[in-house]
Amino acid sequence: xxxxxxxxxxxxxxxxxxxxxxxxxxxxxxxxxxxxxxxxxxxxxxxxxxxxxxxxxxxxxxxxxxxxxxxxxxxxxxxxxxxxxxxxxxxxxxxxxxxxxxxxxxxxxxxxxxxxxxxxxxxxxxxxxxxxxxxxxxxxxxxxxxxxxxxxxxxxxxxxxxxxxxxxxxxxxxxxxxxxxxxxxxxxxxxxxxxxxxxxxxxxxxxxxxxxxxxxxxxxxxxxxxxxxxxxxxxxxxxxxxxxxxxxxxxxxxxxxxxxxxxxxxxxxxxxxxxxxxxxxxxxxxxxxxxxxxxxxxxxxxxxxxxxxxxxxxxxxxxxxxxxxxxxxxxxxxxxxxxxxxxxxxxxxxxxxxxxxxxxxxxxxxxxxxxxxxxxxxxxxxxxxxxxxxxxxxxxxxxxxxxxxxxxxxxxxxxxxxxxxxxxxxxxxxxxxxxxxxxxxxxxxxxxxxxxxxxxxxxxxxxxxxxxxxxxxxxxxxxxxxxxxxxxxxxxxxxxxxxxxxxxxxxxxxxxxxxxxxxxxxxxxxxxxxxxxxxxxxxxxxxxxxxxxxxxxxxxxxxxxxxxxxxxxxxxxxxxxxxxxxxxxxxxxxxxxxxxxxxxxxxxxxxxxxxxxxxxxxxxxxxxxxxxxxxxxxxxxxxxxxxxxxxxxxxxxxxxxxxxxxxxxxxxxxxxxxxxxxxxxxxxxxxxxxxxxxxxxxxxxxxxxxxxxxxxxxxxxxxxxxxxxxxxxxxxxxxxxxxxxxxxxxxxxxxxxxxxxxxxxxxxxxxxxxxxxxxxxxxxxxxxxxxxxxxxxxxxxxxxxxxxxxxxxxxxxxxxxxxxxxxxxxxxxxxxxxxxxxxxxxxxxxxxxxxxxxxxxxxxxxxxxxxxxxxxxxxxxxxxxxxxxxxxxxxxxxxxxxxxxxxxxxxxxxxxxxxxxxxxxxxxxxxxxxxxxxxxxxxxxxxxxx
Amino acid sequence: xxxxxxxxxxxxxxxxxxxxxxxxxxxxxxxxxxxxxxxxxxxxxxxxxxxxxxxxxxxxxxxxxxxxxxxx
Lengths: 946, 72
Prior knowledge:
Number of helices of chain B: 4
Strand content of chain B: under 5%
Largest interface: A-B, 30 and 19 residues
Number of helices of chain A: 29
Distance between the termini of chain A: 48 Å
Helix content of chain B: over 70%
Shape of chain A: globular
Strand order of the largest sheet of chain A: 13-12-27-26-25-14-15
Shape of chain B: globular
Radius of gyration of chain B: 11 Å
Number of strands of chain B: 0
Structural class of chain B: mainly alpha
Largest sheet of chain A: 7 strands, mixed
Mean pLDDT of chain B: 94
Structural class of chain A: alpha/beta
Oligomer: heterodimer
Radius of gyration of chain A: 29 Å
Strand content of chain A: 15-25%
């Protein structure tokens, strides 16, 4: 694709309507939907009316007076952006009078604008420059010596973009983008008339303001006032390629704008169906890790983990790995081998890794990092609805009347979807937040939750059951939906169960921590206020009752008929870019792709015929089982692709013991991550910019990622896996990831209609894509559930065995922040570290005061598993008795503290409930000291004598 | 927890979550769960623990492991 700005139609599309209007623009008959503006109608007809304050991501504003037109029968010169079309209207966009007016307006703008176009970062990519050309500006009669803003001070505080008010034309596109698109309301126009100027927050530097660096303002700016620093440094891009962000599960589509093999900037793609042209600080700006000097670009091996690494060729690394795995298999059997796929890698790579294990190793010891996040979603939604996926597309939120956000923090973890959700909330949708913390969504500009239910960590299930109690006992069940769509006997059993007095809000208040009256009112709101949608995250799944909580949410949705249409549903917000896809691809040890059990002979036969080998019919080991088995001496060899289990998995000491007990650990990653300190082989990975493939986001949307530059280490990850497979004697001959997708489609009914050709034509598709749904499935379970009838499941409350007591009186829960991403391997290697340079322990003022701790003090955080030291942030976001931290930094290693308790059905760890004590300290923990020394030692490279 | 202790803990935890089904059905559901999600080596280990007396296994979990044994 050659470079060029995306087409800007100037004004948003009107609300969907079937009514059309015919008008004439410059003599050409044009048919457009009713409500369309003249500017947009002209643009759709190929006529670009000059404009400055208008852009099609924002509502029409009508301030720049450049887009004036003449309309037959109307006096004056109306602004085309704010004037809607009408039947029979006759419009002229270019007349002598209009030309004079526009030139006069442009003269005024340019009289207060620096004439430094040749050295301006936006030279060649500036709408002001374009508009001056469009109107034929040849002189500025007023001169440049009058009062002006040319000496206004530039703000370079933000690491990614600069703000140069000298270039500002005060069109307020940035302010409106911050308001309408992002919903942060961080920018404003201060002053009036000639004194008007754009300021961030209360006239603060951008970095210190409320700005969240989403980039919407930069994208909206028609001049170089808000400008990416990378463009200033590198120059205007000369080509672009559409791809998909590799951070969270929203799956934003971007244009990777390049010069040669250098990435200049990432611009959110307007046609991206998940993000509609919006972005967050991570996807928009935090891609510097892809070129970071820490990347390892050559394979390395070593015999023992206390030896320095030795750089070798790919051939040598593959041969060493194969020899080691063969040796271990001969000594300990094939069940000593396994692999972990990554939710950061593509579907094609994930599919190949699980195929390598099943076809090549002859076992099912394959698992994925979804084990530790959304595996309960898989179990819960498959059991109740029949398939392991969220029910809606993201756009569905715009039809929701009630939004429940539970155990999720969308403004930090899924920011682009949060912006969309906030748009709907500003339109009047009601909001219920269920979370131990008062997350930003509870109260932010123009958004306020009707209810914040500050559930005590570990009490999700009784809270959800109490909501069900209210719905059943107050007669709020949608009997028609339940009667037609669900198994009625199971419903009756469930209804009797939840209706028991001991499950009422009043009876459970003492352990949920939620006032019964609030819970009752929230349940009534959910059941009665129209289309109601649940959005949930890891605060639901990462518990010993994670699967039960997911099923409890599904029960509520079925009981109230909130399934099978836009605006409703059960929507897991997936943490990583390809959590959904890695699960879909057969990464779990008991399932082949499409969630079909390995024990099913018919399913197995399909794969056996295609792969030409018999498959083991028994489930393999899950990640925690692999580690347990390793400690006991059974499991010996592991390939870990794109995951850092030492930092991300619970009870770090146990993970370390498991890894240390293995005889060959292969890490395939961009960096020498923490897990690599226990590895014997390191295979250098490729970033999402260096390969082709697909990701699947939280709404089941299959999207292409496209190679924008060559793999820096020589091979894309799918090629590296193929090298390994061939080393193990498998006759794999893929020459492009599209062939892997063809195989996936051939073997997976829900992907039967997927191909790269179709994805490229459609932009993206939501599975199932097959003969029943050839164009994909935005909304699932319409008319019938995937399993036929929906199944209510009784979710009894089995409290966690992680108990508070005198030694550990507080409950720790963990999460992530906007600027950092999971273990931070990517974001810590970007300027995002400016916002979050270390993990902090949030605690309530009462808890802090009781312990003699003040904001910024060092504190010892100790649990039954271990202890670490980190700084305290005192905040009343949390209830007394609950503390919170993030897990982004290996120096902290918050998972030293978390326990090994896990979800009863899936073994997903209980990260969200750990009994802890906090006390003042003046030093790091012994583990931190030991681990730092260990990690430094394990990262040594072999040096050769001169 | 040792691995043996952990497997017993996990089996009991699964059984407790199926307890609403009643003793007999809960045991069957637990056995199904172990068959569907546990690696054969894990099942062999818990069968061996049962053979050694099954100390720590609750009644439902014990019945589930017995069902596994019967089907083996």
